[in-house]
Structure formats: structure tokens, C-alpha cells
Amino acid sequence: MKIKKLPEFDRHHSVVHIKDAATGLNAFIAFHRNSKKVPSFGATRLWKYKNEKDAVRDALRLSKLMSYKSALAGLKYGGAKATIIRNDKFPKSTTLLKYASELNKLSGRFITGADVGLDLNDVKSMNSVSKFIVGIKSNPAKYTALGILISIETICEKVFQTKKIKERTFAIQGVGAIGYEFLNIVYKKTGKIYVSDTDKKRLKLIKKLFPKIVLISPEKIHKQEVDIYMPCALSHSLNKQAIKELRCKIIVGAANNQLETRDIADKLYQKGIFYGPDYVVNAGGLISVVDEYENKNLSTKRIERKVRKIKNTLEKIIAKSDKEKKSPARIADEMAKKIINKMK
Length: 344
Known about the structure:
- By secondary structure, this protein is of the alpha/beta class.
- The chain is 43% helix and 14% strand.
- Strands 1, 2, 3, 4, 5 and 6 form a 6-stranded mixed beta sheet that branches. A 6-stranded parallel beta sheet has the order 9-8-7-10-11-12, sandwiched between helices.
- Helix 4 crosses helix 10 and helix 10 packs across helix 11 (300-307).
- The longest helix is centred in the N-terminal third of the chain and has 21 residues, at 52-72.
């Protein structure tokens, strides 16, 4: 596979391929920017990719985003990402244990945790064979949700001249771990909340926990007339067709790589919809696992204090966007590139 010719390749440092026929393990770890002094951070995604090329492309795409996320969160670490091709012929636990043991061969160069397809039990299991696993002591989803709320309040202050969300309406696409944590924070504080998810069992549980939410089909969730639309599912939900159908004023979500192409952000800006750059607003989870890595003791106050700095970053992006008449996403990209291209 000619990795350098893939459209997602962005002068990546390296891609590691880990394969083991006995356990069904077939994984790729992409390192976007690498430092000799500190490790690179990025979660591990377990997904039923069609082929190895798709898995590599996803790892490249997501590792770049992790570099940007780390840079604008004020962290000193490089960005990386692991993708494992799901193989249902083998027990998930066996595959993950082998994967974790293989991580040890990288000698701490890659620090990882749970992404799509993995949960806390998986992380704990992997941690039994590798010390390079994070997201065990802290709850990354909780801090991602906190960062999302802080971002929404900051952007509401810009768009509505008040950070209060009491009367605001929401449409949430995807209510996994982060969607649940966000509802847990804001359920009693906002106006109407529309929710969708492809997992019907999950929706049933969420409706039971938060009975006042309004369930909407995944095909229609982005079309709701609301103040804030929240993409919290998989990548590229903001595409050319979807943005024509949006009826919101603000977009802030937990999903990574929400934009199908970078020019989608410019189109949203032209439409008068404020798009909060995904890797800025959803950095709370990364901030929490980095804190876990750096400190032996867990301090929720310390983590929350760090997550609240997302507000400062967003305010700088907003001010620069207003001054230069560019979309916030373009400004964020420029700021992040200046930082990561200095990494040694």
C-alpha cells in the first residue's frame, strides 16, 4: 500500500501495522507528528472496515485531528490513532489482549484508550497487560461533555449575546457515552431536546432516563429547527447535502472529523451558522486522559480547571475569525498548524 499517496496523508511520521493470525488482530497505528521527548496520544477504534486501506485512511485522518486537538488544548504531545479491523471469527477480548501486548513493543511511544467499538471493560482488560492504556481512572466521556457545554456557552455568548442555555433548543445526533453525559448535565436546564441514534435499544434506554426528549429518525435529526445542532455520531455527517437542510444557528458536537471536506466550514460560515471546530470543542476527553497519564492521583477539580481553558481558546478563535472574516474552522486550522509544525 502506497500510504504517501493516500489523500489523508499529511507528512505523517509513520504508520505501524500489527497483524497476528492466531488472534485475528489486524491493526494500524498512524503517527501524525512525533516527538522524541514525549509520546503521541490517540484512542483505539475497533470497526468493521471493508479492507486494510480503509482502516489506514481512517487512522491517518484521525491522527491528524489528534495533533490539532492536542495543539489547541495546550498539550505537548503528538497526535496518533489506532484502527483495528473487527473480525467476528475471533473473540474480541483475545484480539484486544494481543493488541495491548504488542503496544508494549513501542516502549511508550503510543498512549491509547477507548474509541468507537471499545468500552471501559475493554480498556481495563488491555491495561492488565500494558501500562500504556489510559481512560481508566477518569471518565473521558464526562469531560468531553463538559468541554462541549463550555463551548456551547461561549458560542452562545457570541451568537445570542448570552451564555445561558435555559431557553435553547438542541438536536443531538448520537447518544452514546458522550451524548448521555451531555444530557446528564443539561437535561433540566434547556428547552426542547431532539435526539436520534441508530441503536434502537440505546434510544429506548435514553428515553427512559430522560423522558422529555423527543425521538427523531437519524435521517431527519439535522433538519430540526433548533438553536444548536450536535453531531455526536461518526465522521462526515456535515456534507454538501446535509448543510442545505440545516435549520440551526450553532453546530457543536462530540464527533471527530464532522466535515466531509474542509470547505464545508466556509459554506456554513457564509450561511451564518457558527460551526465550533470539532477538535477544539471536544478536547475534554483528551485533556482528562493526559492528566491521568501525568498524575498518580485523580483530581476532578484539576481536570475541570484544564477543560475550562477551552473557553479561552474559542474566544481567541472567535476574535480572529471576526477580524479576518474567515470561518472559525479555518482560523483553528491555521493556529494548530503553526504549533504542530514546530514539533521536534
